[in-house]
Amino acid sequence: MHAISVLGCGYLGVTHAACLAELGHDVTAVDIDARRVAALADGRVPFYERGLQELVTRHLANGRLRFTTSYARAAAEADVHFICVGTPQRGDGAADLRSVDAVVEELGPRLTTESLVVGKSTVPVGTTARIAERLRRTAPAGAGVRTAWNPEFLREGHAVADTLRPDRIVLGVTSASDEKVLRDVYARLADAGVPFVVTDPATAELAKSAANAFLATKISFINALAEVCEAAGADVGGLADALAHDPRIGARSLRPGVGFGGGCLPKDLRALQARARELGVGHALAFLAEVDAVNLRRRERAVDLVRRQVPDGIAGRRVAVLGAAFKAESDDVRDSPALHVADALRRDGAEVAVYDPKAMANARRGHPDLHYAADHRQACAGAHAVAVLTDWPEFRDIDPRELGGVVARRSVVDGRGALDPEEWRRAGWAYTALGRPAAL
Ligand code: UGA
After folding, report:
1. Is 0.85 topped by the overall pTM?
2. Is the minimum distance from the CB of 236 to ligand 1 under 6 angstroms?
3. Mutate which of 156, 205, 294, 299 for ligand 1 pocket (most atoms within 8 A of beta carbon)
4. Does residue 185 sit in the same domain as residue 320?
5. Is 100 in contact with 7 (CB distance < 8 Å)?
6. Whether residues 152 and 263 fall in one domain
7. Which distant-in-sequence residues (6+ apart) come within 8 Å of 16 by Cβ?
8. Ligand 1 binding pocket includes 327 (Cβ within 6 Å)
9. How many structural domains comprise the chain?
């Protein structure tokens, strides 16, 4: 058992803290947002993540997990500190490291005994070295404060499962003793057979950026082919299926649709390019700009398909947008393709009614000009077009005959390849989808 602090109580931090408690450690989780900490200390997880609420409740009750705003407590109670704060996108595309730096400034001067500071956030390559240098100067324990990078690969919506049963654990360390500490922290996962990749911090930092850039590239690859399918009268759904059977390609992150969004893939893609440019090798990753462009074009294409569904114009017409979260099983709306499309339709003059099973509050906060409906049926009432833009199972299960009774016009745009075209057409709907020929 280790005494661990987790610095930052966002998706990553709360999940990591609760899972470390689940792995048997004693965890102090810190955030500077007093309201967030108060809610968490009271057992309320301020976002939706399957299975997380139960873990937090359990480990608050057994005393293995606590939430505080006090860095002094974190420094006093723990000897392994995980940095889990956000690294959002700056105006120029690079990563904004102010939160990471603020953690280092708060923690460093309080580290009076030997300790290991471990980064988990996605950061530009070179960050660990910079932090190590800073801690050497600010920490009273001096060289007794070590640094390492241990990137996190969890997916929102599967965060708990991905943390407790990861595909791999990457340790970016500079000494065998730091490696041992981290192997100890994750001993139960090692026992369960999770592979470890032990490397240097710079490689570990890059491993995370590269993984997300690869996933984004894979999604944009199939979406670029969707554009070709649209021109050629082919079906990108069938194409993706045909490719996915090749185990070298595989089905995952090959689902065509309105593209990737969220707090990670888009910004990590841009931050990696920005860092490569800083390092003088921008040309090596120039293709990632095209990955980004393909992705954004899918959103425009979705807007265009909705416009075409309403030949007499969408201005003043009601359009239903089903989905607001950037993906199913999440209430996260950061850079959500669904809301991007909804906003564009609203700017065109449509009266856009949005429904999402989990993300309504977050959507409303950031997009107050859209209308919000109590359920998908209400969103579709009187609609001249329905756009399905997040692949929630609830939308897959919609009965098109029943929904046909509430809309003004039976026309649907399937932005996620989520619906059965035959079933919808049989129920009298004009069905169109990204990357599918009109007749399919
Ligand atoms: C992503 C990575 O998958 C994680 O490995 C990584 O740890 C995480 O970012 C992070 O950096 O923290 P996440 O953003 O939760 O995780 O979501 P994904 O499941 O990868 O989906 C990202 C976006 O791509 C979503 O908008 C999703 O709808 C879209 N997507 C995903 C597709 O359009 N097609 C696919 O086949 C898969």
Report:
1. yes
2. no
3. 156
4. no
5. no
6. no
7. 6, 82, 84, 120, 152, 163
8. yes
9. 2
